[in-house]
Design a protein that fits this description.
Blueprint lengths: L1 H8 L2 E6 L3 E6 L2 E6 L1 E7 L2 E7 L10 E4 L10 H17 L8 E5 L10 H14 L3 E4 L4 E2 L1
Parallel strand pairs: 1-7, 7-8
Antiparallel strand pairs: 1-2, 2-3, 4-5, 4-6, 8-9
Helix pairs in contact: 2-3
Length: 143
């Protein structure tokens, strides 16, 4: 019963991915974010300043491109999760107690040699960022 309630009331988001942007759609509302984030050093790694846009000036800020090279010590999974957390929160536009179901398309735009471990990293980043379920129709599977 709980599962059916979650399915009924959970937000349903779709993400169209390209190397340059992620477009997140929630019903009639869409948000398109460029695939980079700005961070600054913090005591425990990095603090995210902005996602998909240039923040107001801040000493020590650094741009991280999701599909480019990252600074030493920064894991791609961390950058992807930080990006997706912001994107999901912005798309839902309200606090929700029910985690959204997310359908991801556009994996084919990320290159012909996309590996299973990279797709697994994307799915894990989405779940860590707040997704309840992730559907990848191009891979013909739900996770």
């Amino acid at each position: 019963m709980l599962t059916s309630l979650l399915r009924r009331f959970a937000p349903e988001l779709s993400i169209q991915m390209t190397p340059k942007s992620f477009t997140i759609t929630n019903g009639a509302t869409s948000v398109s974010l460029a695939t980079y984030l700005y961070v600054e050093p913090a005591d425990t790694g990095y603090s995210v300043l902005a996602v998909g846009e240039v923040p107001a000036g801040s000493a020590g800020q650094m741009r991280m491109d999701l599909f480019g090279s990252l600074p030493p010590g920064v894991e791609r999974a961390w950058a992807l999760e930080a990006f997706l957390r912001h994107a999901i929160q912005q798309s839902v536009s309200r606090q929700t107690l029910i985690r959204p179901s997310i359908t991801v398309t556009g994996l084919d735009t990320l290159g012909p040699n996309l590996r299973e471990d990279q797709v697994t990293m994307l799915v894990q980043a989405l779940i860590n960022a707040g997704a309840r379920t992730v559907v990848l129709p191009e891979w013909n599977q739900a996770r």
